[in-house]
Every structure is written in C-alpha cells, then in structure tokens.
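Thread: "does anyone have the structure for this chain?"

Original post by V.I.:
We have the sequence but no experimental structure in hand. Need at least a predicted one for the grant figures.
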Amino acid sequence: MDLHREMSAGIEAERASALDMLGPSAVSVRAAVAELLEHRTFAYPLSVLPVIVHAVETGATGPAVPLAVVHELWWTSACYLDDLADGQAVFAAGGLGESEALLATVISGIPLPLLVVQSPRIPEKARGPLSAEVVRCWITATEGQLRDLRADTATRDAVVTAYLGKSGAPFSMVTAMAARLADRPDERVELWREFGNVLGVLWQLFNDQQDILTGRNEDLANGTVTYLLACAVEGAGRDRAGDVLELHAAARHSTDARAELTGVLLAPDVLRRYEEDISVFRDRAHRLLDELGGDTAYSDVLHDLVDRASPMLLRAAEPVARAVTPRL
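Reply from O.Q.:
Generated one for you, tokens below.
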C-alpha cells in the first residue's frame, strides 16, 4: 500500500496515456472505458505487483509502471465479465448501459493492454513476448472461468485447476511480464510465473473466506464450487458427499439451505483441512521467493504480501450467524 501511494500519480498518468492510445477517432470508446475504470475500484492495490517483481530483479520500479496499468485493465474487464456471468452486470457498470459496458469491457481487457505493451515505453524486443502473455492469460483464465461455471466436479484438485485459471493466470501473467521486461532468462520467468500462480490461488482462497465473513454469500447463491466446499465434500465420505452436493444445489434458491450449508462448511474438521491446505500453498510461495532471491527490500514486500494473502479467517462458531443473518 505504501508503494502504491508513492506510485499512484505515475500509474494514473500511465493510465491516461493508455487511453490516449485509442486514438482521436475513438472518443466514445475512450469515454466508456474511462467510466468503466473509474467505477471499478479495488480494495487492495495489487496493480503494483509487477512493479515489485521488476524491482526484485533490477532494483528499479519505474520501467514496470505500464504493466501496473495492464494489471488494472485486465482485472477491470474480468470483474465486469464475472458480474455479467452472475447476472449482476447492471449494478457493475456505473452510468453505462449494460451493452455499453460490455463493449468497453472488451476494449479494456484485450486491445488496450496490447496497445500498452506495444507502446514506445516498452523495449522493442520485449513487445512480442509481452503481447503473447496477454493472449495466453485470456485463454487460460477463460478456461478456468468455464470450469468454474460448469462446476461438474467438487474435488480439491479440480477446484485448484479452476483457480489457476481464474486468479492464477492474471497474477502469473504480470509476474512473468515483469521478469521478461527485466530481460531475465526463461528459467527465471517460469519461476515467477509459478509464483504468480500460487499467489493467485491464495488470493482466491482469501476472497472465498471474505465472501462468507461479509455475509454476501455470493458463492452459495451462484452455485460456485469453492475449495471450502470441496473440503467438505471430500471429508464427508461416500455416504454423505451426495447430501452435501444436494444441499449446495438447493442453496442457490433457498436461504434455509444456504444457512444449513454454511454450517457444514464451517464444521471444525472442514476448516482444519482448509487451513492445512492454505499453509501448503503459503509455504510453497515463500519457497519460490527464497529460490528467486533478488533485491531483498522488494522481496521482503512480496513475502509480506504472501502472508497477508493467506490468513485463516473463518472460525467454526461465530461466522455461522454472521454469514446467514443478512439473508434472513
């Protein structure tokens, strides 16, 4: 957050420059994308992630500021598309109509990031590889989102595969981009990609917990198969796994079913399994950072980010009432 405050003016200027790349004939496009960006604000300043990675490798933050804008553009687009899939698009686009927001989302997510990484601010030899990262990310993330929407398997392995697309792909995109921009060899780029993937899974697990603790319960209402649900299904055994899945299906339309399922998810044995697995992902992220080394001042920031992204927030008793009360 401190680094984001220091760099916010530079990121904002870079964002304005990116919008100017749309050209003088795209006045309506620029206005729509600008409104989409203004409306979609983020609680956590993770746009500086590629900046930190670049600084770990080189000690310099400035050259990676365009990648911070790519990160913002991608997530703005992805979040709107996620709202659209959940039937919430009307509430997610500010003053734009749904069709206007959808068109702006397409520009924000794909052409505009490609324009940014093809700009003169990026060394010529890096432009092709960075453009390929944008395309690769969208393919991988779409695969993860489709797996999430179909949700036909409630196992921990299947959920992790979906999470690697939904959240791992964008985080690994910008960490790999930062390493490529720093002109690092392919082996280090791939290590940074792996770190981004693990951080993305941790961040998704963090968001899943927040959904329950805030009482939003959007995952239950949308029928999302979360990692916590997979822990409950696998822990139930063959005799009761079907009952948990039936309850999960009913929770999409029933507040009583959501309340009952919340109790199942917050059972002590389920939470114990969940917490153990969070620790595994957290330890893996720290090991990757240790292996990567680099500028310790910025590497320490990433170690701290890993810890802040991987707390065990859920508790077996109190969150049950807090989670279901807003739905009663």
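V.I.: this helps a lot. Confidence is low (pLDDT under 50) at residues 319-328.
O.Q.: and The CA atoms of residues 54 and 178 lie 5 Å apart.
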